[in-house]
Amino acid sequence: MFKLSKILEFTSGAVGSLADRTVKRHVHNLFQGRDAENNLFEKYKIPYAKRKAAGKYKNQISKTVNRVNMTLTGKMLGNMQVLKSNYQTKELKFTYGYKKNRSGTKFFNNNKTRMLVDDQALGEETEDGLVRDFAENIAKNLSRMTKTKYVVTME
């Protein structure tokens, strides 16, 4: 008989990897112009869109205005990171975002007009990725326990 706790077990390394992949997925979701509810972001205001398209900003790397991608200089999304992760209390925990810096302030202010994250909603791609990561970890544990290879297939 198998213990459910062993099937659901995560190593600290697995939690760290899960957190890193979640950050990458969330950044990708935002870069694709999708908010926390998977809706397209509200379009840029016309004066800002004109300045961005013309490349009027210092250190600008993106001139894209037809799809809001939250990337002018790339720093805000590039600075999103895992702040901590652990599995010491048998509870899977990880936190990501920004250390106290300019990018964190920009993210907070942008979240007021475009919902980048809201009450645990992270966007469909990010949330689906979390489910896949959980399923793959369970499959890995089952494979180890039964000496049988398990493959995760999700549609």
Model description:
This protein is mainly α and 155 residues long. It has one domain. 46% of the residues lie in helices and 7% in strands. It contains six helices and two strands. It has helices at 4-7, 12-31, 46-54, 75-78, 102-113, 124-146; strands at residues 81-86, 93-97. A two-stranded antiparallel ribbon has the order 1-2. It is elongated. The chain starts with a helix and ends in a 9-residue tail after the last helix.
Topology:
Blueprint: H1 4-7, H2 12-31, H3 46-54, H4 75-78, E1 81-86, E2 93-97, H5 102-113, H6 124-146
Helix pairs in contact: 2-6
The best one-word shape is: elongated
* Proportion of strand residues: 5-15%
**Average pLDDT over all residues:** 86
CA radius of gyration: 19 Å
What share of residues is helical? 40-55%
What is the overall number of helices?
6
- Which structural class is indicated by helix and strand composition? mainly alpha
State the strand order across the main sheet: 1-2
Pick out the low-confidence regions. Answer: none
Beginning-to-end CA distance, first to last residue: 30 Å
Number of strands: 2
Largest sheet: 2 strands, antiparallel
> How many separate domains make up the residues?
1
User: H/E element string?
Assistant: HHHHEEHH
Compact description:
Helices cover 46% and strands 7% of the residues. By secondary structure, the protein is mostly helical. The protein starts with a helix and ends in a 9-residue tail after the last helix.
